[in-house]
Input
Amino acid sequence: MELAKGIIIPVIADFVLSPDILYSDELTGIYFQTEDDKYGRITFENLDALKICRGENLPFSDNWEEGQKYTWIYKIENSKWLKERFDYENKNYGILYEFGGNVKDMLTDFSHYVFKFHDQFVEVIARGFWFEQDETSLFKRELQLGHPFLNLPDDNIEKFVSYNLTCQVRTNSTPQDKLVSDAKFCSQKLIEFALELDGVAAVDNSLILSYRNGKLISSLRGYFGQQIVEFEGIAKFDDLKPYIETYMREVYERRKAMGK
Output
């Protein structure tokens, strides 16, 4: 049976006003006013599907009980829609699935979310979501500093050299317990690796913290999001270095063949 399980976040949508929904390549999200007269935004990690329906009552049974804290966001367990989307993607794309190439991620990493407003609700299938709040509207504005979808800042960098190439190691300075807590909403970047090539440093591998089937994992992912290796819990730099050095050797050999 499908069941809507409440998710608590520190941003609470206004009980009466309807949201604005923006669908675009970069800033797809739910934009709304909050109960304390501020402005909120929900953005999505690897958005797969979105639909908007009229109605004040959820079309799912939920686990809310009298006396519990109010929630306006739900995750749908045993979602029929998520299974339908997986069947479609698996049949039509298989190993060419857009988000990292493994369509089975939809069954382990993706969720069916519902965001409830006064007279409508928004349903989304995505790997995760993140929330923001500001004194002024966030509509079409760039993601705020510290948003987990952005690259890590370059103010906490170490470097190492292998195969005559220099790699920047950018570590997230956010306290580890907060990263673990925030990973319940969407993936969190622990470390980014950026090769310095021709005077430019570009991130090409990242260590990502997330939950898979309720288990905390960290995975090294390449430039296009494909998973290279997975670790239980939080991996350390020494766990990753052999994989990064293998990548650096491949880059070195390609550049050598090109005469660089």
